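User: I'm curious whether this sequence folds into something compact or stays loose and floppy. Could you predict its structure so I can see for myself?
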Amino acid sequence: MRYYVVILMCLFSFVTDAQTKIKFAYDNAGNQVSRILCINCEAKPTKEINAIASEDLQKFSEEDVISYYPNPVKEELYLQWKLTQDNYVTSVQVFSISGQTLATYKGNNTIKNVTIPFQSFPSGVYIVLVSYKAGEAKSIKIIKQ
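Assistant: Here's the prediction. I'll summarize afterward.
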């Protein structure tokens, strides 16, 4: 009987320790794409952010000129763009998932970035709509933690 109790205790300790060794992977939209039990791996050190570098910014695509950081966001979302010729960002709007306009930021040809505070918004999913002078618009799905 003691033998079974010792085995059960060992299995229980192994299973509870395994809870901290589950690794998740997410796509750019924030959806979970994989879950892996990693028994003999070490945790990667987290990156300390002192200043935003260009490799930290997430881009729509390689040829696109708008980038944003971070997603998911806790406090502030940083948007940056580089537009060519006479096209520029006319407005940046933040919408709730139900379509309610939460904030609007006007742009012009001299503004090249905007910082959007998310501290006052509850956790959830938001849409940031970037409108250009040429009439087109791009949307970004942002997750607030």
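Summary: The mean pLDDT is 77. DSSP finds one helix and ten strands in the chain.
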